[in-house]
Structures are given as structure tokens and as C-alpha cells.
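[step 3/7] fold_predict: job queued, chain A
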Amino acid sequence: MPDDSTSSPAEELTPLQRAALAIKTLRAKVEGLEHARSEPIAIIGMGCRFPGGADTPERYWQLLRAGVDAVGPVPADRWDAQAYYAEDPDAAWKMVVREGGFLSQPIAAFDCEFFGLSPREASYVDPQQRLMLEVAWESLEDAGIAPGSLAGSDTGVYVGFLSSDYGRVPFNALPTRDLPYMGTGNELSFSAGRVSYVLGLQGPSMVVATACSSALVSVHLACQALRQAECSLALAGGVNLILHPDNNIVLSKMRALAPDGRSKTFDASANGYGRGEGCGVLVLKRLSDALRDKDRIHAVVRGSAVNHDGPSGGLTVPHGPAQEKLLRRALRSASLAPSDVRYVEAHGTGTPLGDPIELRALDAVLGAGRGAEAPLLVGSVKTNLGHLESAAGAAGLIKVALSLRHGEIPPHLHLRNPNPAIDWEQLLLRVPTQRTPWPEGPRVAGISGFGLSGVNAHVLVAEAPPEPPRAPEEVPRPV
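[step 4/7] structure written:
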């Protein structure tokens, strides 16, 4: 007969021992939840199309390292730059600029059959959707992932998007049979939905429209979704194309654009921003999963934060106290001290009002615990490319990931006479105008993005962990 008196080990414990075991078990659960809530996120793939022929991360790094100014004349296939130009910003339906950061690749070039679109449908699809498809695919290839292998997976897609210049044809001027293509080709949400559809992804899929901070907010939301196990892989980034003159004209009337088309960030001549276009996509994965799968890791997102300016001096006016709160929240989310951050990729549009506010906020928060011998380094890729608006955060984040990997900070351009409205003697920061080795110690950087609508984002990124040594694989060679 079996012995019914057999007891489990837990039943043999005293009440005090059982209480201690329960506390230990609960503590382990809490620690597990805390780790999941704040787990670093690995960047395992990157894809890009930026001005100056920077259509791969490698070419982008070469452009940055060489200090290339990629701003140039408006391409002839966009609009007649001279016909729309006027020196007077108040001139009716004219703009003050004739240059910008434009892609060198033809916008019309698209292999529609590769992505399963008919030529007729593709002709109605916003080129921003088409570009996002291409760069998303290339970012997965960079991650060593066959895009077709993700069908049915919970992979998420987060696309930063601002506006469409494409779908402005009166609908009643189109053939009735083509109206469905016009709708799906130009409605905002399809920029993410089309990527998920083409790749067969079943995770979260959304467009984030917070103006100039859209791409960084997309990364923030993707990291949150990964930590909460809403997805196991995520694509995040932003896209922006300048196809028609309308927005340039509006921004000219707002006195937001620099007449020479260049963002002269932190310089005394800063007089507005130069517009740019492009697309950047990052492939994100929980760090523990990336280490388990032996993925190549470009960099690691340690933490991030998003907020709004609130009651600032105006809807489009930046707000220093809100930026300070944003930075402190991002540091808490990453469990970092202010002095851990060695470099900040600033929003840095190059405006007389915004630049001083941003640098004062950076110094107020990240200057804590920092000596004069170790100033915070600050730069902005907008001086190379122009302001890519909804793709700007992706350009900044990819720049920082490349900079961390190569151990070098690229030069910041157009800084000849530092802005006198900035108290350079008092602020513990420096703008590197030449290639600069990373300061000694842990490599940590921040990337800022401030939306014209008041939505701010900051992402903190650290260098990738050292790769474990790998034994060479034995490859059978029978012949």
C-alpha cells in the first residue's frame, strides 16, 4: 500500500520558514517584473536613405565622418525652384528657399512586383509608403533576418510620419476604378499597415504623427511594446519626402526656414532650419533575446521618455522646463546618472530661439556632477542633411549608433561664430567641429527630438556589449 503520509518539502517547513520562502518567491517575481519593465533594447539592424547618397549605414557613416554638407538645389522633377522663389517672405505663394536636403535616388524608382503591387496600384501609392517598404526590408537584411521568415510573427511596426505631399489630386478627376488605390495609397495609417501586410506581420502596427519628434516617439513606443511582450521584434523609424512646394511656402510664411536651406545650429547666423528628406528604420529586440540568438548588436537603447511642452510661450515655442523634465525622466528610465551621458545628438534645428533654450536645458540636467575637464559634447546631424522632420530622430539615432560602434564623434558643421545668446563660458558643454574620439569611460549618448506641436522625446543609447569569442565553424568540404 502506498504511504499516504508522504509530504512535500514545503509542508515540512515551519510556519516561519514557509513565510520566508513565500517572501523570497514574491521578491523574485517582483525583480523579474522590474527587469522586464526596464530591460535594455538591442538595435540589431539599421536601414536608411538620406541625402548625399547615404543609402546604407556604411555610406551614411562615410558622409558624417567626412563632414559632408548634403544640402543642394531643389531637383528639377519636384518643382521650378526659381518660379516659386522670392526674397520677401510675405510674397504671395512664394518661398524664401531654393535648396534643401534631397535624396539623390529618383523618387519614382520602385520595384512594385518585388513587393506584390501592380504597376497601376503602385502609381497611386505615396512614395513615402514605397520608401518605407524598401528601407524596412533593407533593415531586416542588415539584421541578418530573411524578411519572408517573419510571416505570422508578432513583429511590431512603428512609423513616424508627418504629412503627405502626394495625394493632392482631386478625387473626382480620377477613374472610378482607381479610387480604392488612391485611398489606401495615401491614407496616413497605411504607411505602417502596408509594411505589416507585405511582410505578413501580426504584431502592433501604427503610425506616429508627433511632427519632428515622430521617429523618436516611434522608437519609444516600440521599446515599451517589447518590454511588455506585446511583440518580440519591432521595426521603428520615420519617413519624410518633399514632393510639392506647398509646405515650404507655409513654413516661409512662419519665418521657420533658413533662406540658404541650411541648419546653422548653435551659430550666430542661425536663422531657421533647412528642410531635408529621407527614411530610417531600426530593428529592435530585447537585449536578452538578442544575446541568446547571437545577433550582431549595433547599440543598446537604455531608456527613453516622451512629454509635451504644456503652457509654453506659444503652441510652436519650445519650453525649457519641459525639456528638463523630459531629460530627468529619460535618465530615471535608464537608471543612469547625468554625468554618464557623454554626448547628445541635439534637436538643434538652428533657430535663434530654440538653440539657446535647448542648450540651457541640457546643461541644467546633464551638467550635474560633471567637471569642466569633461564637458558634455553636443552636435546635430541637421547641419549635414537638413531637418528631416518626421525622419529626423531616425537620422540622429542611426548616427549615434554608428558613432558608438566606431568610437568617434563626427564633426558638427556651420559653427563659425557661436551664438552670443548662449553663455558658452558658463555651460559645461562643447560642440565638436572636428572628428573627435569618444571620451574615456562608458559610451552613452542621448538623442533629442522636439515636435513643432510640442511633443518632445529623448532616447538614451549605450554601446553594444562586447561580442563573445566565437569558435570557427567546421564546414564540411567533401570535394
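[step 5/7] annotate
The mean pLDDT is 93.
Residues 40-463 form a domain with the Peroxisomal Thiolase; Chain A, domain 1 fold (CATH 3.40.47.10).
exit 0
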